[in-house]
Structure prediction request, 396 residues.
Amino acid sequence: MYGTGALWLRDAEAMDAQEREIPTVGVEEEYFLVDPVTRSVVSAGPRVVARAVLEVGDLVSEEFTGYQIEVKTRPCTTMGELRAELVRVRAAAVSAAGQEGLRLCASGTPVTAPVDQAPDVGDHPRYRAGLKQYRAMLDDFDISAFHAHVYLPDREQAVLAGNHLRPWLPLLVALSANSPFHHGIDTGYASWRSVIRSRFPCLGPPPYARSLAHHEQLAAAMAASEAMLNAGMPYWDIRPHPHLPTLEVRSMDVLTDVDDTVALTALIRATVVTVAHRVEEGDRGPQVCSELLRAAYWRAARDGWTGSGIDVLTATPMSFADQAAQLVAYVRPVLERYNDLDLVKTFLARLNTRGSGADLQHSWNGTQAGLHAVVDGLIQATTSPSIKGTEPLTVQ
Prediction:
């Protein structure tokens, strides 16, 4: 997660007119560290981070397992800036991993089985507390995510905006699905990461909240029941960040393609801005049935982009392509205002022709090399020529 967050904590009066008009965004991405010969994840996070911080400072950090690292971007105003920033931090992580003889792999779950049966959990008090509280539930909790932050400093407004965002969370799962394989097994799901997370009472869609105070009361009750570690830091899929002036969206698998990440961030920002305006008009958001929302999550995790999901606003089946078209139509004025409409439309067209990350992984698995080809494809895509200044690495 973001460190001190000092880069976000800027006085609004110091922003220029463009910054006040266009909220800044930032992203976090988690990656696996993979041996290019065995294709298994390797517990080398602290060593890789120690190398990467020399280039990008605290924009890289350790993650829950030693198999992973996390990078984050600075706050950006345009999607062009965000792409350049993401390319820069990815390149630093690629270089640091390479110096350890490893490769970077952007996938929601490890494709092949780790050498060790249980994840090598990082040395952090919060991680150790999680092990004590959740026990065997964390035995295969080696998952990698993409989080998007949108500048929204009014925490009351952010909570109510989350009510409006809840119905769209299953669509975000489908758009980002990139974890069909787990420890050498084809799960039959597009996002097995989402299934792993669904077992935890403190993860997934947030409850409907009437106000910031109600949101905090619900978190406190969850923490008192020991279903949540810390009421001050809930891990729901939408949250006003505990330390940053942002609304954070957390439901997505990490995406392999940088351009997919940037385009999906543009769509998320436009949605946040649109619903924040609805809140300003007095609309607290639809009270979507929580059970139906969880069912929609499951359907999105199982079938992914090419399947049909549940439109929780109407309680009817609907293809994810049609749901995406509805969302784009809903937020189109904001996308046009920020010059992001073509970026999002191109992303959706790319999904229709190329498929999602899960579809790509299945296509690579169809070759003679099987799962090794999946890992090789992910490595090459994570370190593709689109990351300017980095050459694709030759996988052994």
